[in-house]
């Protein structure tokens, strides 16, 4: 077992050990199934990167806190009296007990450890130690909660355990610029769900950051001519002509893919283009998203789509009409709708991997999001969250909470399309364990998001930077 010796020295080595080294389009399966690799990720990656801990709306008032658990680390994020946010390691400076568990609100203006009753202000400062004169003296900081870097963007509270993290907004580049017109920070939850899956967190991430599986897993999306709820029978090879083309753009810390037409498609998908020019066909796809994804299209957009479905084909493409109608309806109903040019829309729309844990599909009205968190010990398990954020009219924001389901199969409200994804997950991860499988062999155009996330991870885990090569 020399591999263990290869990789467990405490410092990044500047070299990726052969068993974890990726090829140009190859990713060895050990990065998904080896407990040792999971520990490397937790020790060297998750301790260094910015990661979303919660949404700001989850801690609306002073004293409200939210616990974020990543591996063996628990971090509490606390709303301050001045409206700011601070984050601390969630470990009492007495004997280490977690000071908070889950979400809640501090009582009497203090956070209280339940073991011996030590108290801390919202700013983490030690405020009460019973029988303090019986302790040896130590510095004020030593009595207080240990801080963690915190920042906000897009309505998320990000934390970093790094000593000197980069500026959050620099780390997030180019999301900050590309998504500014969409004003994600003004969106609120429509719904949110959490469960556990029998797969590595990256197995799940991968299933949501490439569009190459669309025709294979979601064949109904190729058939908008069949109405808002088309057949989900597997597509025969000849139907793949209609598959969307979903190229990846890889950035230094993140990636994105968009749905588009294959550049070399010529007349091959002319039939599809002709179809899409019909208002009711385009409207069918939008209705499907509302009915069977429960996001990407809001209830208000759904009404716009139904109106569009009744319109005759004309000069203006249905896609443009749809956007106009969604905006008009939203404004009429009092929503501070994000206004942007089509150019700005295309620069931000699509599926973003906010490395390492968050995936967001961004529309003007709403965002469909996923977060995947590794288990502390088992590379074959993860936490899976799915949520929809939306721009609401003032006073219309619904009260929501995390719907927690033990097994995803126990909840029947995922919708057809997410169910198709979830049904794959166990089998993908189980298949990776096969003696007959060595690793992932990736599409050079549509799956580079997956290769890219491993390149980013190698910077942190092994000190290897592809950009240096
Ligand atoms: S461990 Fe927290 S008060 Fe003792
Ligand atoms: Fe999918």
TrEMBL record:
Chain segments carrying region Disordered: 216-238
Keyword flag Membrane: no
Pfam families: Rieske, Ring_hydroxyl_A
Key words of the record: 2Fe-2S, Iron, Iron-sulfur, Metal-binding, Oxidoreductase
Source species, domain of life: Bacteria
Molecular function via GO: 2 iron, 2 sulfur cluster binding; iron ion binding; monooxygenase activity; oxidoreductase activity, acting on paired donors, with incorporation or reduction of molecular oxygen
Cofactor(s) required, per the database record: Fe cation
Domain Rieske, chain residue ranges per copy: 50-159
InterPro entries: Rieske_2Fe-2S, Rieske_2Fe-2S_sf, Ring_hydroxy_dOase_asu_C_dom, Rng_hydr_dOase-A
Protein name, as recorded: (2Fe-2S)-binding protein
Organism: Mycolicibacterium parafortuitum (Mycobacterium parafortuitum)
